[in-house]
C-alpha cells in the first residue's frame, strides 16, 4: 500500500487579497502584511474583529466535534472484540478528549470563556461536525470511523498546521500526529474484517456503505455555497477549499478501498485521466443541511449525553477548582 497520509504540508496557501477596511486602515494593513508574509498571529496581537469571530467559531466548533466525537466510539469500548482492540480504542477516545481540550484552550485565547462555549454547545446554538450524528451499529463502524472519519480529519487538518493563528496551528501539529495513528489503526481493523469470514467482510462493506457519504460531507458545503471560505482563505485561516480537500480525500481513499476489496458505494465514481482524479456522484446536500440543523439520526442522543455528562460530573470540576485554590493559597503563604 503506497498511498497513505502525510502530516507534511503540500503547498503554499492562497494569495491574500485586500479586504474591505472596516477597521483602522493602518492596523489592518499591518495585519494583512503579516498574514501575507506567513507570520503567525498571536493572542495579544491586534486583529480585526471579524478574524477573531470566525476563528472563535471555527476552533470552538472543532473542539465540540472532538468532544462529541468521543461518543460514537465510546459506545463500543465495553464491546471491543479483544483486549488489544479495547486498549487501542480507549487510547484513541482519550486522544479525542485531549484534542478537544487543546482546542478549547486555543479558542479561549481569543477571549471567549470555556463556559460560554460549552453553554453554546449544550443549548444547541453551536455546531459540531455532522459526522457524529450518525450511529455506530456494529464493530465494523469503529474500524470505518478510524479509516474514513480520521482520514478525512487529517486531510482537513494538515493544512491547519499552517493556519495563520499561532495557538490553533500549534495545537494542530500534535493533533495531526495522533489522527495519523487513529487512521492507521482503523485501516488495520478494516483490513482484518475485509479479509475475515464472509460475515465479517459483509459487516465491513455495510459500514463502508453507511460512512462513505457522511465522510465526504465532513468537508462542508461545496465551494460555491460556502459563505466562509473566501474570507478564511484571504486570512489564511483555511489554506485549501472544501472541494479541494474533498477531492484529495476521494483520490487517496478509493485505492485504499480497492486494496481492501471493498466497493465504493457510488455508481458514478470514475477515474478522470484529464484531471488526474476521480469524478464522483452528487452528495445529498439536503441530508447534509438537515444534519447541520441537528436533525441527524442520533443528534438528540448526542446532546443529551453531553448535557448529562456535564451535570453528573460537576463534582470533578468542583474538586479540581478546590484543589487549585488550595495549591495557590499554599504557594502564596
Ligand atoms: N458539520 O462556510 P463553510 C474529527 C457549517 S474533527 C457541521 O464552508 P467553514 C476528529 C459551517 O460551520 C471534525 N457544520 O464553513 C475526530 C458553517 O456554519 P457557521 C471537525 C458544518 O468553517 C475523528 C456553514 O456550515 N473538524 O473528526 C460542516 O469555512 C474521529 C457553512 O460552511 C473541524 O472542525 C459539517 N461537516 O468550513 C474525532 C476542522 N461543514 O459556522 C472523533 C476545522 C460546514 O457559519 C473521532 N474546521 N459546516 O454557522 C474546518 O476546517 C471548517 O470549519 C469546515 C467548514 C471545513 C468544517
Folded structure, characterized:
This protein starts with 24 loop residues before the first helix and ends with a helix. The chain is mostly helical and 333 residues long. A two-stranded antiparallel ribbon has the order 1-2. The chain has 13 helices and two strands; from the N terminus they run ααααααααααββααα. Helices cover 63% and strands 2% of the residues. Residues 10-18 have low confidence and may be disordered. It has helices spanning 25-36, 49-68, 70-74, 83-108, 114-122, 139-157, 166-194, 198-217, 229-234, 242-260, 285-295, 299-312, 314-332; strands at residues 270-272, 277-279. The structure holds Phenylacetyl coenzyme A. Phenylacetyl coenzyme A binds next to helix 2, helix 6 and helix 9. This is 1,2-phenylacetyl-CoA epoxidase subunit A. GO terms for molecular function: phenylacetyl-CoA 1,2-epoxidase activity. It comes from Sphingomonas arvum. Its EC number is 1.14.13.149.
Using brief descriptors, characterize the structure shown:
333 residues, mainly alpha, 63% helix, 2% strand, globular, binds Phenylacetyl coenzyme A, 1,2-phenylacetyl-CoA epoxidase subunit A, phenylacetyl-CoA 1,2-epoxidase activity, Ferritin-like_SF, PaaA, EC 1.14.13.149
Amino acid at each position: 500500500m503506497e498511498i497513505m497520509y502525510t502530516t507534511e504540508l503540500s503547498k503554499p496557501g492562497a494569495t491574500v487579497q485586500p479586504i474591505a477596511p472596516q477597521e483602522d486602515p493602518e492596523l489592518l494593513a499591518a495585519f494583512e502584511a503579516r498574514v501575507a508574509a506567513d507570520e503567525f498571529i498571536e493572542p495579544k496581537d491586534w486583529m480585526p474583529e471579524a478574524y477573531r469571530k470566525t476563528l472563535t467559531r471555527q476552533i470552538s466548533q472543532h473542539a465540540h466535534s472532538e468532544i462529541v466525537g468521543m461518543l460514537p466510539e465510546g459506545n463500543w469500548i465495553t464491546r471491543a472484540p479483544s483486549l488489544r482492540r479495547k486498549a487501542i480504542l480507549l487510547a484513541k477516545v482519550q486522544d479525542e478528549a485531549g484534542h478537544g481540550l487543546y482546542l478549547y484552550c486555543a479558542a479561549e485565547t481569543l477571549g471567549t470563556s470555556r463556559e460560554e462555549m460549552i453553554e453554546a454547545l449544550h443549548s444547541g446554538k453551536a455546531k459540531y461536525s455532522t459526522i457524529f450524528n450518525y450511529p455506530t451499529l456494529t464493530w465494523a463502524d469503529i474500524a470505518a470511523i478510524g479509516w474514513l472519519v480520521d482520514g478525512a480529519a487529517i486531510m482537513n487538518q494538515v493544512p491547519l498546521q499552517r493556519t495563520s493563528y499561532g495557538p490553533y496551528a500549534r495545537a494542530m501539529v500534535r493533533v495531526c500526529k495522533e489522527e495519523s495513528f487513529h487512521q492507521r489503526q482503523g485501516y488495520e481493523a478494516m483490513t482484518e474484517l475485509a479479509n475475515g469470514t464472509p460475515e465479517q467482510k459483509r459487516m465491513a462493506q455495510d459500514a463502508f456503505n453507511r460512512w462513505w457519504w457522511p465522510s465526504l460531507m465532513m468537508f462542508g458545503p461545496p465551494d460555491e455555497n460556502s459563505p466562509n471560505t473566501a474570507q478564511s482563505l484571504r486570512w489564511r485561516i483555511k489554506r485549501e477549499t472544501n472541494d479541494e480537500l474533498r477531492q484529495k480525500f476521494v483520490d487517496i481513499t478509493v485505492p485504499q478501498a480497492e486494496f481492501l476489496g471493498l466497493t465504493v458505494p457510488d455508481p458514478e465514481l470514475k477515474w478522470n485521466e484529464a484531471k488526474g482524479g476521480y469524478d464522483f456522484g452528487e452528495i445529498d446536500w439536503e441530508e447534509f443541511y438537515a444534519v447541520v440543523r441537528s436533525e441527524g439520526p442520533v443528534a438528540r442522543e448526542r446532546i443529551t449525553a453531553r448535557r448529562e455528562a456535564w451535570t453528573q460530573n460537576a463534582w470533578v470540576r468542583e474538586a479540581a477548582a478546590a484543589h487549585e485554590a488550595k495549591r495557590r493559597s499554599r504557594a502564596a503563604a
